[in-house]
Amino acid sequence: MKIVLKISMLSLYLCLFNSGNKSFAQIEKGRQKYRTYSTYYFKGCGEMSREDYLKAILYFDSASVVCPYFHKPYYENIFCYARLNNYQAAYDNCVKMTMTGIRFPIAHDVLGGFKDSDLFKKFLKEEDSIYNSAMRRYDAQYCNRLAQIINLRESTCQLRPIKGEKDTSSYFHQFALLCKQNDFPTPNTVGVGLYRDAIGICENSMMYGYSDSEDWQIVLAGFNKEVESCQVELDFIYMLEDVYLYEQGKPVKYGFWATSKMFPDMKFPSISEMNKNRREAGFADFELYLGSMGEEKLDKFMKEQKTEH
After folding, report:
1. ∠ CA 106-107-110 to the nearest 5 degrees?
2. CA torsion angle for 129, 135, 141, 143 (degrees, to 10)?
3. How far apart are CA 2 and CA 244, in angstroms?
4. DSSP per residue over 73-107, as a string?
5. Integer-rounded Cα radius of gyration of the chain
6. What whole-number distance in Å separates Cα of residue 169 and Cα of residue 89?
7. Pairwise CA distance, residues 179 & 146, whole Å
């Protein structure tokens, strides 16, 4: 089943990268900071897939220095340290990850002996306390209002808006009002868990009909403001642009769905062209991105591309 994106990419970009109060140079600085972070992160994932956990940890640590408020480097380090039987360091990264405002998301069965260790049992007993301590850093009223909107989205996102109708009760309209009053949610203002749910609101709304609206201009202006200081992950806008181009029968730009079976016959440009697009957008190179999932996937993709061309 194809995903239909009702989205004006031109208006999206005008809003995202040409907001009146932010110069292109300021936004470019934030995008390049994110590129540095994502390059370290995907290098770490690549080393982890090769089971060189010590080297992977060095890259994940470097990523967390660039953007300490994103949880993924700590998430990966838990696995790496568990594989190295360094349970104290694995426990420390459990704490660091939870302090970004997200609960423990890793399936316990992939943690090897660490999941049965006293230190992991200690963490599980402390998790609620650590998470609540992290969330006390944020505005409780703001977080509670966002949580209400997220719950509303989960109960109503299957509904489609009537074109041209302004539904003041819709979750996305309420989210736009929240962004207008409080800025776009970031890991530093609501924690990673609520922030990622806010990204989910944007993804759902781009895909199902809210994108050509005044509300989207408000939301993207708020998002744009946070790009400058690299407070938000940029991937979600560009992943959906690739889907949009696929639906138009055109080659994608960034290659985010290179291994996905959701989009058969997706057209890809050359790797050099994708790298050019990815560098301009602020992402790690395509080979790093795909290679981080396993070198066999990169090799398979490159062979298929040679066959097609």
Report:
1. 100
2. -120
3. 11
4. HHHHHHHHHHHTT-HHHHHHHHHHHHTTT----S-
5. 20
6. 47
7. 10
* CA 39 – CA 288 distance, rounded (Å): 7
Q: For residue 34, which of 244, 182, 251, 237 has the smallest C-alpha distance? A: 237
CA distance readout (Å), 237 to 147, 205, 240, 243: 22, 12, 6, 10
- Nearest-angstrom CA–CA distance, 247 and 270: 19
Alpha-carbon torsion (75, 81, 86, 87), positive or negative: positive
Contact 120, 92 (CB under 8 A): no
Tell me how crowded residue 118 is: count the other CB atoms within 10 A of its CB: 9
| Cα–Cα nearest to 40, from 70, 78, 79 | 70
Say what the pTM is: 0.80
Count CB neighbours of 83 within 10 A: 18
The 10s digit of each residue's pLDDT in 133-159 is: 999 999 999 999 999 998 887 766 544
Would you state the structure tokens that stand for residue 216, as one six-digit string?
């989207």
Give the burial string for 244-264 (b: 16+ CB within 10 Å, else e).
bbbeeeebbbbbbbbeeeebe
Predicted confidence (pLDDT) per residue in 156-198, tens digit: 654 444 444 455 457 888 999 999 998 899 999 999 999 999 8
Q: Which of 215, 222, 257, 259 is nearest to 238 (CA)?
A: 257
Helix axes 214-227, 9-17, angle to 10 degrees: 40
